[in-house]
Amino acid sequence: MTIIVTGGAGFIGSNFIFYWLREHPEDRVICLDKLTYAGNLSTLAPVMDKPNFRFVKLDICDRAGVEALFAEEKPEIVVNFAAESHVDRSIESPEIFLQTNIIGTSVLMDASRKYGVRRYHQVSTDEVYGDLPLDRPDLFFTEETPIHTSSPYSSSKAGADLLTLAYYRTYGLPVTVSRCSNNYGPYHFPEKLIPLMIINALHNQPLPVYGQGINVRDWLYVEDHCRAIDLILQRGTVGEVYNVGGHNEMRNIDIVKLICHKLGKPESLITYVTDRKGHDMRYAIDPSKIHRELGWLPETRFSDGIKKTIQWYLENESWWKPIISGEYRNYYEKMYGSREKLS
Ligand code: NAD
Ligand code: TDX
User: 0.90 cut: is pTM over it?
Assistant: First the structure.
């Protein structure tokens, strides 16, 4: 069986490729990735020489290139991780988000129709549901919660979701969609909260917490997300959406304090800075559908996952050092240099 994994040089896609090659060694995995700032070929070094793995540098918006690859490889399954994924970048420059996340998805689905793939899976996010209030801990996102987005990023992901479900209804393309909560783990790009705080703390640099740090995210270890997608591919119902999350809600400030504690760094590094525009307050997934229908449950507790993640960053400086010393420096200066310190 041949599976095309797009965005496989990024955080979750690379973890998914490692997972898939381990769990399904008889399959052929094709990674299609444009290698944007967020894609790192060195991440895939451990699998690059495997005979059943192929890397193809390609933009998912490149219709001719995508069709040629599908014609050559005749994939049975396509899993689309490729996306612009950072909310702060979408607030600065929305257009590339619309291009990659919406147009790219349509190009992949057109090729999937043309070459008769058995399943097209769209990797989506809980952010398409907008946010929940902090004073209603009884509320959770279900698959029936209305789409109600806040940022250009989440709007582009919501557009892609709607398009995916429309391709099922209109053309009968066999699709599934998963909407997962915040992931953490190895190979997470340093612009995101957890790796950014680990790396800054290691350098005794300020830890920039947006607003009051009371926003809540629902954290899931990346491998649990990969296993959920595997189950959806094996046993999920086409045309359906599955929420994925482990009931692990934490306030940002508590995560940052925990990282300080684990690394033996003082909390005085914490610096409150100007809030993100349109900042979502709380995400919280109700995962009962995927549990009930597919038997999925998270396996990694946050206390273990965060320990493993911090250890991974301590042991893999060679992975993140080149990233933070390149173009990322300009990004950091642009995003954080102008943020007013609130304390
Ligand atoms: P990431 O930014 O780490 O990786 C994205 C990958 O996509 C990179 O390798 C990049 O090179 C590639 N890419 C970007 N534009 C492309 C294009 N036009 N053509 C081909 N490749 C392109 O992202 P991530 O955190 O691994 O997220 C992967 C997917 O999961 C995204 O669709 C995201 O919306 C979704 N998601 C992420 C989270 C999370 O917490 N990180 C949670 C839920 C859902
Ligand atoms: O420097 C920071 N300071 C800070 O307080 C950064 C980078 C973030 N934050 C806050 C903003 C959020 O409330 O931490 C929280 C997490 O921020 P991000 O890591 O940027 O993630 P988030 O905006 O929650 O989105 C993530 O989860 C859903 C992924 O980036 C998305 O791709 C995914 O869809």
Answer: yes
